[in-house]
Amino acid sequence: xxxxxxxxxxxxSGIGAATARRLAAEGYRVVxxxxxxxxxxxxxxxxxxxxxxxxxxDADQVAALAAAAGDEIALLxxxxxxxxxxxxxxxxDPDDWRRMFEVNVIGTLQATRALLPALEASGAGTxxxxxxxxxxxxxxxxxxxxxAKHGVAVMTETLxxxxxxxxxxxxxxxxxxxxxEEFSLTRFGGDVDRADAVYAGVDEPLVADDVADVVGWIATxxxxxxxxxxxxxxxxxxxxxxxxxxx
Length: 247
Ligand code: 8X3
Fold this sequence. Notes:
Helices cover about 45% and strands about 20% of the residues. The chain is an alpha/beta fold. It has eight helices and nine strands.
């Protein structure tokens, strides 16, 4: 089944790469977007998609992405994002916060603005923003990331209101604890021990494919069905702070 074109940002690893693979399996022609060209070229070759090197925080690069992606797009997955640091507000580095706002919030805004005409032109567009449980609750040390992901959540709600009556549905997937190769390493500046400690003793954190599965499900619902929000966590994580860890 040909489902048209899907654009996935942050497709070089983790949830983005898994989502690109899942969407290709569902019948989308996937435009794989990220800064790291080699990775997305390999992925695009694997899934018979298209690789477009793009930093979503750069408006010119996003404009070039829109030109490359085509006049009609069925699906945009705004996945590019991430956390930097786990510093309390009183000692947080404003540059870390700026970077988190840039990639999570402004990047999502820019990709959405640039691709919205093509999503609408498809007659049946879908936007899936990858938020986080961090977009629904606060936690110590998470101030910059939680503020940015709350921004993504509110942007998603706002856009759904603004687009009512037009043929583009707007959805959010908010994962909790997902063990990927890079999220935690990036947060802790490459410190493997701190990165691994996040998942220590947790029986089966989510993996990228679990989130990709949710995105694939949302995207393939009948077009009149708008899945506003899916919060998805591992069974070991009853709430942000309530994580079961074995010995
Ligand atoms: C990732 C979830 O708990 O690290 O988006 O904020 S958490």
